[in-house]
User: Fold these one by one.
Assistant:
Number 1:
Amino acid sequence: RDPDSGRLVCRSLDSLGVTSAEARRAWAIAKSRELERRKDDHRIGAQPRADLALPSAIGDYLRTASTTTRMSTFVGYEASLKLFAEWAAKVGLKRTSEITGRSLALFRAHLIARPSARSKKGGRRGERAEAQKKCAPRTVNKHLTAIHTALRSFARLGLSAALNRDVIADSLAH
C-alpha cells in the first residue's frame, strides 16, 4: 500500500525491466526500505504527498504564477504548459504521480521534433500555420524553462514521488 494515499499499488516488474530472481529480490528489498522511510517521515510529521489530476495541478500553478510573475512571463508559462498538457493527454498522462524522468525526456524530444509556426498566408490577423522547419532551439529552451519551473513547484508540493530537482534537470537537459 502507498503510505501517502493508502491505496493498493500494483506494478509489473517485467515492465520495469526486473526479470531475474535476484533482480526481483533486490527490487523488493529496496522498495520495502523506501516504504519504511516514507512511513517514518509520516511519523515525524511529514505531509502526505498529493496526487492531483494534471490539468488541476497546472491550473493551480498558473493561478499562483499569475500573481507572482510578470504578465509577459505568465503568458509564456501559460503557452508552454498548454503544450505540455496537450502532449500529456495524447500520451495518457492523467495525474501528477505519473510524470517521470522518462516522460519528461519524451516531452523534450516531442518539442524538438515539433514544426515551427508562421503567419498564415491570406489568414486573419494572428492566425498561424505550421512551417516546414522545426522549432528554433531558443523556442524549445523557452518552453523547457517554463515546464522546468512548474515541475519544480510540483516537486516542492509533493505532487509526484518520482520528481525531484535532479530528475527534472537531467530529463530536460540539452
Number 2:
Amino acid sequence: DPLAGNARLRQVALASVFAAAVVLTFFQVTDLDLGGHVTVGREIVKNHRIPTTNFFSHTVPEHPYPVHQWLGQVILFGVSHVAGANGLILGRMAVVLLGAVLLYRNMRREGAPAVVSSALTLLLLVAARPRFFERPFLVTIVFLPLLHSFVTNVREGRTRTLWPILPLMTVWAH
C-alpha cells in the first residue's frame, strides 16, 4: 500500500470519497417517478394495506397493480411528508455516502490499498451518478456491500454473522 506509512494521505483519500458522495448527490429532486412512489406509499399508510389494483387509472381501475417496492414507497412517503424535498435530498446523500463507505471498507478488508480503494470507489460513484434518484432501489447501494461483508465473514469462518442475511434480504426485496 503506497499510503501505508502515511496516515494523513489515507485520511485524504477517504475524505475524497466522502466529498464525492456528497457532491454527486447534491442536486434537486428531478425523478419523474417520485410522485408515483410517494402516492403509493401514502395510500399504503392511509389504507393500511398494499394496493392490488391500479388506483391511478381512470380507464382500467380494476387492472392488477403489483407493488414490488412497497416498503421503499412507504419510506419515501414518510420522508417526503415529514421533511419535504430537502429531506429526500439528505436521505439520498446519506444512502449514497453509507454505500460508498461500506464499499471502500470492503475493498480495504479484501486487501486493496487505500489509494486503489479510494480510486475505485470514486470511479464507481461517478459511473453510478445517473442512478442517484429517490427510488426504492437506491438502497441497493448500501445492501450490496453489506451482503458482501456478511458473505466475507462466513468465508472467513465467522458463521454466526450469517443470520443478518435473511432480514437484510427480506427488507431489500420489499
Number 3:
Amino acid sequence: CRKPSEFRFPESLQLKARIEPPFRGLLRCEGYLMGSTNKGLKIALTDLDRVGIADVAHGVATVVLNDKALRCVEASWLKMEGLIANGQRVYGINTGFGALGHAAIDAADRELGQRNLIYHLATGVGQPLKWKEARALVAARLVVLSKGHSGCHVDVVPHLCAILNSDLAPWIPS
C-alpha cells in the first residue's frame, strides 16, 4: 500500500490475540486470522488478475496501491456524493435495500442505516474459511472496489491493501 507503516490495528486487537484449536495453528485476533507470508513479488492493484489474487492469498505477493486505482475510487466517491448533494436517490445510500429500495432514507438516519447493513452482513455461522481463502476474497473485493464503480470511500482501499500486505485475514464463517 502507499504507506503501510501508517496502518495500525487498534490496541484492543493486539491485546486480545489468542490461539484457538479450531483454527489449526492460526492466530485469531478478534475477527482476524494470522498466518505467515513470504512476500517477494509486488503486484500493482490495477494489474491484479486471478493468478495475482492467488499469489496474494497465499502470502507470496504484496499488493501495491497505485495512483490510477486511487483516482478511480475517488472519482466514483465524488460522483456519488454529488448525486446525493443534488437530491438524487442512490440505492442503499439514501434508500432502503431490496423491497425497500424505493423508500427514501432521511439524511439523519443514513449513518444508522449503513451501520445496520454492516451488522446484517457481518452475521454468519459455520467453520471459518481457511486463511488463504479469506485473503482471496479480500483481494477479489479489492480489485472490484479499485475499478471505481462502487462509490466506496477512498480510505477503504488502502485499508484492505494493508490487511493483505500483513499476515492478517478476516475471520469469515463458511
